[in-house]
Amino acid sequence: MEYLIGIQGPDFVLVAADNVAASSIIQMKHDYDKMFKLSEKILLLCVGEAGDTVQFAEYIQKNVQLYKMRNGYELSPAAAANFTRKNLADYLRSRTPYHVNLLLAGYDDTDGPGLYYMDYLSSLAKAPFAAHGYGAYLTLSILDRYYRPDLSRDEAVDLLKKCAEELNKRFILNLPSFTVRLIDKEGIHDLEKLTLGAK
Amino acid sequence: MALASVLSGDSADFSFDSSQSFAFGGGPGPRSLGLEGTPGDSLSFSVKNPLCVGDDDGVERKIEFLHGTTTLAFKFQHGVIVAVDSRATAGSYIASQTVKKVIEINPYLLGTMAGGAADCSFWERLLARQCRIYELRNKERISVAAASKLLANMVYQYKGMGLSMGTMVCGWDKRGPGLYYVDSEGNRVCGDLFAVGSGSMYAYGVMDSGVRHDLTVEEACELGRRAIYQATYRDAYSGGQVNLYHVHSEGWTRISQDDVLVLHHQYKDQAVAFK
Question: How many Å lie between the alpha carbon of A47 and the closest alpha carbon of chain B?
Fold first, then answer.
């Protein structure tokens, strides 16, 4: 039902998430934000079971902030991703595992941009592009076909639009709008919401 | 509205392990029940729930509370309108037509009730207590966002243990009108318009086509009333009376209570007069 996508460029990461908060067959909210700001240059996109998503993401968010307060400097995206994965793994075989799928996107001042794919079984993979949800089945091949490591920002947004149009055309569920954000060395930027009209 | 806990034996699931104390926050979930050895060991009053599809291992005992109700709330320029029905059902039996499904948490916060009656009223009473403690500690009223977050965090600890609660926390704080949907699954969503319960889809239809930000208080009340009425018309598990509340900057006011049958005749006469 829910959809997340991330595309890494040479000096930025572009991420988008749909805006629907659903409860069985009803759309409860049309402008729900699924991205959590972990720090100035790290975003966590989180989908999955109701309740688990917000509770887990906020837990990670608070802990990343606590690290900054204790140590005086921020966790790098790679460290934050591994911290998140470790938490998922620790809870996986407990009585209360978190059923969440995540994308972590960040910009490290030394290593550059990074996109990390995590799923509810606590796997972690650094990838140039990634997607979550049923929509991923439709859009990963588009990303495979048209992605290049040296994409410009506009080209990345066009690639994102291609994916959204494909969802609009072929995906059975209506995902009318997507929140889009871009992370680069300046920080996190809100781009224009991607809205798709009738087919 | 499910009052299954009131009926004895055949629709309810009373499983009580006396070796564990019911300390707050440490209730035994269904998973810890039925695992303690043979009958006659500890005091275990296990009544098998015939409505439940046979789980003989006794571990995944899910109590089938139908969210048999219609409750709705929406924001507009003059605050929040809250409208609810008043029918309680236990299976196909109508247990009551006069249930109060709006819980008055404090003079400026309201909570609605859908799901298990005991769950809703207990947790919202607990929320009232937490809100009062906040007021005493911080010398200012709690915001609707904070109140709903307190409730969501409280019930999240019991996720998967059979709580059934779908509630809307409505109020007015320094940011203006506030409306949050909180349920026992862990959802907590801020919004302008919600309907909860088995009749919610019917209510959404009427509300979505009639709601505007610039409604007058009268129009908004009538919209809420009409939406509940239409839901009770189609949904067998909703009915009784329509209870209407208005939350404004001074707090909440009870607007009206109308029997659905009376409304039915009223609207029919209006429709005839129209022709």
Answer: 12
